[in-house]
Each structure stands twice: as structure tokens, then as C-alpha cells.
Amino acid sequence: MKKRDLEPTEENIIDTFVKNSVGRNNSLFKFIEMLNYQDDSYSIAFDGRWGSGKTFFVKQCKLVLDCLNEENQYSYKDQILDVIGQDEIAKLTKIKFKTVYFDAWKNDSDLDPIVSLSKSIATTAFNIKTKAKTVAIEAGKELVKIAAKEIAKADIDNILDIFHTEEDIEAKFKKELASLIPKNGRLIVFIDELDRCRPTYAVKLLERVQHFFDNKKITFVFSVNLYELKNTIKKLYGSSFDGDRYLDRFFYSIISLPDANYTSENIQGMSSDEKTYLKYCDEITQKFNFSLREENHFTSMIDITGVKNRFLSSNYHADVFGNGNEIIDFFIIPYLIALKMVDSDQFNAFVYYNDGTDFIDFLASSKIFSIFLLINDSNTLKKAAKDIYDCIFVRNEIVESVGITQEPKNIYIREPYKLKTEVNDILSLVSNDSVYEDKDTKSTKK
What we know:
The protein is an alpha/beta fold.
């Protein structure tokens, strides 16, 4: 299957925006419209769990802002503006924006974040295509020099002492910073991956932003997993430290990342059977509230088992198991893969201890299952789902065939006692070590 959590390359950022394949364009427009009406120094947190597409969202936001700036020229600019539309453009261009993207995690080996952050801002200013470019370059160099030579010499706890002895340092820094902000415009600084940084670096970055970048024409947008950021802070200050109150000092507002809507309908070049299969997988990922990264892991596990390809290539009407293999490949294996990712105890209860209650309720509510049986009655759907589970996983007697439905479609499972073994053989490819694990964060669901 195609990956859901695409790499945030420029090509993918542009393509998903043009197609709106993640379903977040309207949220982007609303957020940018809000930026047009800010009149003070702001720090905003976009909160989302790991793998939910935070980097994609802020990079798409930067893409739109950059294309709205008439000074910027890109080969894809007209395409982006066509997608936005003239009416929307009018709402989003009350002021001129300049943007900076800063990956905190890639820079957390630096001794002091103010130097690398200043470099990012100054380098962005160097791209100005006006007569002011030379002035901006000199201002940018001076900004970095002050950050590196004066500010970064001090430990964060001693900043106020430095101000008492060298009161002009902060003023000099802010003066050079102000010269890099667009006239009658706003500088938007996107800071990504802060929650993955070393605790000392993450805290110092927040402190530096608060002390030195509090310009009324600058907005900082942090894309973070606030839960993990609080844990990071507690590692530094102790488990009893109030991380919520601490972060309230830095974020003017906290916005939950809009839900992605990367469903099978968004994926091009698939047959109708494959789209139907993936629509059922979409129902499963919604049930278990998977992030985009978890969805990708889920679909890769399905690929490993081969059940989707077998379903798409086989003629199940002639199968020796009647509709049995069709049912396990389509409805049972994907559900069990997801269940094993989320809760291994519940998975074992399903397979070995005759507890299929949750599966029965889920299958009975599935639109795809209803279409498969050509039945809309909820009671009939629930009975069919229970019969499927019971005849494969509960009954021990050997029977020739079990009828699931007769009207309007004859669905039956021949020799159901053999299918439980087949399910276990297929799922052996998804080992206990294949539960979802974010390799970057080492956080595992079991």
C-alpha cells in the first residue's frame, strides 16, 4: 500500500496542498487569516501527538505564506495561488509576511540555541530581492555576532546579571532583529521538533525566545507534542514540577492540530476493489485513532501478510472454504493486526479466549461490511458478525459448512474449523516485536 505519512519534502508539501489530500487546507487558511490580525508579540503552540503530521502542517503554512509574499518568486507559486483562489488571497494578505523554519532537534547539539536561531532568521533575510538586501545582510551578520559573542557566553540563569553590567546587549540585539522584519509586515518563525530535544536545550530555547525575541511584529509558532514537552521539562526540574504552569509562561495560545483526513479517497491510481479494501482499513484506523505514522505501520503490516494482494487477485467464489478466506483476508486480518498494535492482551483474548465482543460490535457498524452483505438491518448485521466470529474462533466441533446469510446474498463458510489455523499462520508474520514503535522516540504501544 502507499504510505500515508509522506516525508515532508518540498515536492510532497506542494503536492498534498494542491490536492488537499490531507484535508487541512481550510484549517491552514483560517490560521493564516488569524495571523493577519495580530498586533503584538505572540507565541503559539500547535499541539499534536508524534506522527500526527505537525511538520507537514507548519511547512504547508510556510509554503502558503511564502507564495503570498509578492517579493518571492517560485516555479510553483502560480499553482499555489490558483489553489488558494482570489477571494481567499484577499483575506490572507492584509500584511506582508516573512517566514523562518527552524528545526530545533537538528540544532540541539549547539551550546546555545540563540546562535542557530539567529542564523536561521538572518539567512532568511539574505534572500530579500530588493535594494535593502545589503543592509539586511549586514544586519543579519550583526545579529548573529551579538548572539554568539555576547549573549551565548552567559548561562541562562545569569542573563539578568549581564543586563545590569552590559545593558546595551539586549537593545543592540533587538535593534538588529527589528531591521530584518518586513516594513508594515510580520515575521513568522516556525519552530519544529522542540519536544524531541535535550531537556536543557528545549528549556533554554524557550527562555531565549521569551527574553530576546519579544518584538511586537514577530510570531513564534511551535509545533509540539505538549505531553512529551512537559515530560522533557520534568526530566530537568523533577517529577513534581508543574509543567503546565511553566509552559503557560511561553505560549499565548495553544491550538490542537487539525485532524488529517488522508483516506483511500485521496489516493490516486487504485482499482475500485483496492479502494473498498482501504475504506475498510480507514474504518479500523479511525476506530483505533491512529496517527498518520501509525497508519503507515498498520498498512505495511498488511502488506507483509499478503492478504490484500491475495484478496485482489483470487477468485473466492471457487475457493474450497466458500467465503471463508474472503472474510479473513478482508475483515479479520486487518482488524487483528491493528488490535495487536494497540493491545496485545485484547488480541490474545480475541484469538484464544473467545472474547470477540468488540470485533462483533465494530463489524456490525462497518459500512463496508454492510455493503458486502447487501444488508442494512443492524440486528442482522450483528448476528452475521457474531456467527463469523463464533464459527471460526469459538466452535470446536467439525462441521461441513456454516451459513452466515442467505438473502439477499448467500454467504457461507465451509470447514470453518480450519480457518483459525490459517489466521494464526498469517499473523505469525506479525510478531510480538512488530507492535507499533516510533523508532525516533522509542515509545511503544502494547
